[in-house]
Design brief:
Blueprint (H helix, E strand, L loop, with lengths): L1 E3 L9 H21 L5 H9 L11 E5 L6 H6 L12 H5 L9 E6 L5 E4 H4 L6 E8 L4 E11 H8 L7 E6 L19 E5 H5 L4 E6 L2 E2 L9 E3 L12 E7 L6 H5 L23 E4 L6 E2 L7 H4 L13
Bound molecules: ligand MTE.
Length: about 325
């Protein structure tokens, strides 16, 4: 159950999880060294983990009574195909990504187009802590403590025009930094999109951090989308372009397998993916399976947007 309130981060269960994450992190770095993995990868990752701001300085907009997934699992079990299709590939390869400095091109139906620095678009003095469930179409899930700003706050800055109906996002596609681009597993650059009302929904977050620190490369540094009522693949990483359009954007997953991945991709236990049942999910770190909730449990905040739509056709 998701509860919206403004208590501080410290008043939750997190002190315990922080410690276990810290311990597992040490174990993992030790384990990698023992396995003979080049020292550059974990060292490069460690450099990125700068603390973002004192925790007390940030409001906590969304809380959860569920246990957080350990940091080591969130940062080492990833889908980021630009760095390889294996779950461990992004952790191993994403040290090549250069997230600073970072610019984002803004174009299409906006009054303020241009090339913005990340800091111009995202107000780092207004970051919020938000605990969200992430549910992957592959039927695993996590609970993640993100740090970010509402996407709506960024859209307000760039001033969408009245004809804008969709937001299209694009990930960096640089073969020098992203070895996975050599393989045509997806239509590169990775593209995702939201309808305007979805993008303006308060739950839609542009994340720049997790677990109190800057977001690690493999999780989408320096800025990624998080839309917790949709399957994980809608949460596009390392965004370099935001475009406002009047037409539904063609998304990478939809282009590669239209029967499997629709534009909406709302978490829905009633509509199975051709290869994975969507009725249950395995929470990373738990035994057994739990029931998947419609809209990933966020229905109260999002179901209205889909009233009257046939979600088995608009999957
Ligand atoms: N964004 C890009 N650019 N490339 C990707 O391969 N994978 C998606 C999404 N965003 C992906 C991406 C998928 S399938 C999932 S489940 C989530 O990222 C995983 O996010 P995480 O690695 O932070 O758990």
């Amino acid at each position: 159950m998701l509860i919206k309130h403004k208590h501080s981060w410290h008043e939750t269960e997190n002190s315990v999880t922080d410690e276990s994450a810290y311990l597992s992190r040490r174990t993992i770095i030790g384990g990698l060294a023992a396995a003979g993995v080049a020292a550059t990868a974990p060292m490069a990752l460690a450099q990125k983990n700068r603390v973002l701001a004192p925790l007390a300085a940030r409001p906590t907009a969304y809380q959860s009574s569920e246990s957080l997934t350990p940091e080591a699992a969130i940062t080492q079990y990833n889908n980021y195909y630009e760095f390889g299709t294996g779950k461990g590939d992004p952790f191993e390869n994403a040290w090549r990504l250069q997230p600073k400095p970072w610019t984002i091109q803004v174009d299409g139906l906006v009054d303020k187009p241009g090339t913005y620095s990340l800091e111009d678009l995202v107000d780092f003095n207004a970051l919020e802590d938000r605990i969200y469930r992430l549910r992957c179409v592959e039927a695993w899930s996590m609970v993640v403590p993100w740090i970010g700003v509402p996407l709506a706050s960024v859209l307000k800055k760039i001033q969408p025009q009245s004809g804008a109906k969709y937001v299209r996002f694009e990930t960096l596609a640089d073969t020098k930094q992203m070895p996975g681009l050599r393989w045509p597993v997806l239509d590169w650059p990775y593209v995702e999109g939201l309808r305007m009302d979805e993008a303006m929904n308060d739950l839609a977050l542009l994340a720049v951090g997790l677990y109190g620190k800057e977001i690690p490369n493999q999780n989408g540094a320096p800025v990624r989308l998080v839309v917790p009522w949709k399957y994980g693949f809608k949460s596009i990483k390392s965004i370099v372009r935001i475009s406002l359009t009047d037409r539904e954007p063609r998304t990478s997953w939809n282009v590669s397998a239209p029967r499997e991945y629709g534009f909406y991709s709302n978490v829905n236990p009633e509509v199975d993916h051709p290869r994975w049942s969507q009725k249950r999910e395995r929470r990373i770190g738990e035994f057994g399976r739990r029931e998947t909730l419609k809209f990933n449990g966020y229905g109260e905040m999002v179901a209205d947007m889909y009233a009257g739509m046939d979600l088995s056709a608009k999957y």
